[in-house]
Amino acid sequence: MTDYERYLVGLAVTVLQEVATAPAAEQKPSSGARLALRVLRPHCRDQWPLTQFWSGINATDDMVRPQIVKASLNGIIHQLARSGVYTINQ
After folding, report:
1. CA–CA separation, 64 vs 38, rounded Å?
2. CA angle 9, 12, 15 (to 5 degrees)
3. Residue 27 — pLDDT band, cuts 50, 70, 90?
4. Given this model, what pLDDT does residue 90 score?
5. What is the rounded average pLDDT of the residues 56-75?
6. What is the Cα–Cα distance from 57 to 15, expressed in whole angstroms?
7. Domain coordinates of the chain in residue numbers?
8. I want to staple 80 with a disulfide (CB 3.0 to 4.6 A). Which of 32, 35, 66, 86 is the partner?
9. Mean pLDDT computed over 55-60
10. What is residue 75's predicted lDDT score, i.e. its pLDDT?
């Protein structure tokens, strides 16, 4: 993997982290989140955290949405760390 690809993965994770840390009412689907998930897709062995993240930001319940988004983001980061394309301390 090139340094540029690692940079893109880090940038995509940053975009998803911004969505996950936004107030519940602002956790909405966006083209940035969609693109970030698309960039990360080839690097995640299991696809469930990616689809769960997208489902989470599309959830209508403001109480449940942050929990789903945060849990799936943790799953995405775990998948990326396992594949060796992302270190958790970035």
Report:
1. 24
2. 155
3. confident
4. 54
5. 93
6. 13
7. 3-83
8. 86
9. 92
10. 97
> What is the reported pLDDT for 29?
87
DSSP line for 28-59: ---HHHHHHHHHHGGG-SS-HHHHHHHHHHT-
- Residue whose token pair is 């849990």: 71
What is the phi-psi region of residue 84: left when phi exceeds 0, alpha when psi lies from -120 to 50, beta otherwise? left
| Amino acid (one-letter) located at 3 | D
CB-based contact 12:31 (threshold 8 Å) = no
Residues in contact with 63: Cβ distance below 8 Å, sequence separation at least 6, in sequence order:
24
Q: Which residue has the tokens 């340094």?
A: 3
Is residue 37 within 8 A of residue 58, CB to CB? The reply is no
- Tokens representing 46 are 């299991």
What is the residue whose two structure tokens read 């689907």? 29
* Cα–Cα distance measured from residue 85 to residue 65, given in angstroms and rounded to the nearest whole number: 27
Question: DSSP readout, 55-78?
Answer: HHHT-S-TTTHHHHHHHHHHHHHH
